[in-house]
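Shipment paperwork, digital attachment
Item: protein structure file
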Amino acid sequence: VVPFLPPGVGICGVFPRRLSHFSSLHKISYTTKTVKTAAGEIEIETPRDRKGDFEPKIVKKHQTVLEDLENKIIALYSKGMTVRDIQELLSDMYGMDISPSLISKITDRLTPKIEEWQSRPLERIYVILYIDCIFYKVRQDGKVVDKAVYVVIGVNKEGRKELLGFWINETESASFWFKVLNDLKSRGVKDVLIFSVDNLSGIGKAIKGVYPQAEIQKCVVHQIRNSLRYVSWKDKKGLSSDLKKVYGAATLEEAELRMDEFEEKWGNKYPHVIKSWRTNREELMAYFKYPLELRKLMYTTNIIESVNSRFRKVTDGKRVFPSDMSVLKNLYLAALGLAKKWNRSIIKDWGIIYGQLSVIFEERLEA
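Attachment content:
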């Protein structure tokens, strides 16, 4: 039994032939088009009225790929496949020819979702924010340039990790970091207890300008890597071992003593290493103020490094991106996968850590 349908409404947006008496009554004709689906290509007849008022609900005007196939294309894209790879796979699996430009248009539908995600409200307070960057080659004005994508990850009061956003910029500066931090503040982040950052240009000044009460901890792991960069291969093992005595000390006093011993042993041969540690002493050693469990979260950006490795996994097949938005589409899809994983877990020993935080930052956590 076919129910009576009012003018302008079809079954799945398609009128079957047996409603021809109805279509003739309302001056409806048909146009034929081929639609690509996960089951292959099918031919449908879409109603068309004289005034052009009819709007199909499921197979919309000008739509040639159904939603189930669109979702599969986006899923393949999220796994790091290039547009050409997806085109070849669909051709092999379904025998259909979908142009690279059509696949790009389908992935472009992520753009409003990305913009919404980038501006979503955030929590009022984060215990720690980790900031780091990952580099990609992007086409711009006919040239291939290196772009830095800055990633910010927060740990909230419940001990859950959250990726707060991405920011793309070619250069680091205090003004750029002011923009990033003010963006976070406008989205609801009123306080941050601790920032764990690499030695990013201008970041310290920006943090103190936007979150003046925040503790700044520079990543010790990055500092070690930078220290070893210009060290002779035969000295690296010994120098690394001596540096470990500094950052692995039980107290700040012991760390300073070990640093003096380190300088006495290596200062003449590698003065640049000593200068770097001395210059950044306050922000490299900030974690000594806190209990051991909290120190492990502070002095390294390992959390964000693991995120960056996931991003690299889904972007390794794409040597050059055609645009900034192309980079963001890939990272956004990877971020959605991370969010599902993080929603099911909290940081190890969080009960102990939060108990310590409640004593140290009592007024700010309860505000």
